[in-house]
Amino acid sequence: MPLSKRHQFVHAQVASMLAVALVLTLLESLSLELFFVVSLIAFLVNVELTAPFRITPRWRRRLRWIILVGLVGFAYVVVQRILEILPPGVL
Description:
Layout: H1 5-26, H2 32-49, H3 58-61, H4 63-85
């Protein structure tokens, strides 16, 4: 029995996140922030590569909320990194 498009999407995302964890581990640079950012990029690529041409299913419309939460998390990581770089007393 063939998998539904939703299951294919989930399998592709899990596989990409496992690949990200493996590559970061092999490069000895595994951190939560880096894993989150690279997994978010993989998620956005996965969303674009599996986008339907004509009709958008309801489950794909809900991905917008996940993308929004991911981008807010990315903004948080960027702000934290900028605050680490700035010398004390600038803000």
